[in-house]
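To close the chapter, one final illustration. This time we ask the reader to focus less on the individual chains and more on the assembly as a whole: which components sit near each other, and how the overall shape emerges from the parts.
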Amino acid sequence: MSPIITAFERSPDRGRGLARDMRVRWALEEVGQPHEVRLVSFSEMKQSAHRRLHPFGQIPTYEEGDLTLFESGAIVFHIAERHAGLLPNDANARARAIAWMFAALSTVEPPIVEREQVPYAEGEKSWYKERLPLLEDRIRVRLDDLSIRLGDADWLDGEFSAGDLLMVMVLRRLEGMNILDEYPNLSAYVARGEARPAYKRAFAAQLAVFTGKPSNG
Amino acid sequence: MSPIITAFERSPDRGRGLARDMRVRWALEEVGQPHEVRLVSFSEMKQSAHRRLHPFGQIPTYEEGDLTLFESGAIVFHIAERHAGLLPNDANARARAIAWMFAALSTVEPPIVEREQVPYAEGEKSWYKERLPLLEDRIRVRLDDLSIRLGDADWLDGEFSAGDLLMVMVLRRLEGMNILDEYPNLSAYVARGEARPAYKRAFAAQLAVFTGKPSNG
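The assembled structure is written out below.
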């Protein structure tokens, strides 16, 4: 039985693939796991039926037989543990790839989400424009270090892994902010992720939700 | 050979156990794994020798033979995978415990860290006091959901797990803010974590760094 994931019925990013279901779609495509996508509206997400799947009323969720999961990082990890292609076989390399998964979500993503949300949360406030450079500098603190560590390597630690998948998705949230242009190696890294056939299939599937054309997801 | 972790030589929390080494110390105590603690100063953390261990120049790190890890979530997971006591044996329950690890660090912690940092980052700004209630309401959005999910259970999903360990540590960052008092079941949950013998040993060891008395770590 194919796993079922949830995604926005109408993503606020209008099909740019920035919502967190894209991470799970990409992971499933990397390992060649067929899956179903169930679309949920914003009002459904906050109702008790969906909250039984996701305590925080968000997407994505993952249902597979008796198992229900939430948190995109945990879902990607679950997929990576059960299929070849997203985590190295070598135990130490595997542990390091998992460290990059946590780094993407715990260290790099939070200041990016802060910057992304502030126009909606505080766009009307008097301080809005004065705070923007502070928020962008906090992103640069992380990107400076990430750029140095990546150097001229293709991926963060050897072969492409679930750590790269999550890091690429986190960095993609900077689209339209110009900050990533200051880091040519990180821009190339994101482009390298986007060029993967599995990424392209996942992107097309989530875009199809927005355009209304049938998904192959 | 015992693993070596790093911690602040002088923690900014003055021994309250809020720095991220406490998570790793607690996990190591839960599984009964002896370990060494190497203290690093703020200037050492930003130098290249430490950055080889931690690309973002932070603590904790974890060294064990050929393996070097960073990110407290990844280190706790590594410990939990290799020793009994922090993840359930049942595959589905294990996956759900891992989901709570990610939920603690990706969903619950970011607004708490925002609130924690703002006095240092923006305490002198004209908007500082007006923004505080906004930041605290963002924390409540998460705690409302978490409190409902926990209900009157002891732990988030069955037995105590690495997911609870990280969630308790994340909630402890609210100490001194009074918000947690609004959620009696979450306050009791944190107290339940703090009452564990392994927690107490880890807390005493990190406090000893601040008081200057020898650690049993």
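The radius of gyration of chain B is 17 Å. Chain B has two domains: 4-85+198-211, 91-196. With these observations in hand, you are ready for the problems at the end of the chapter.
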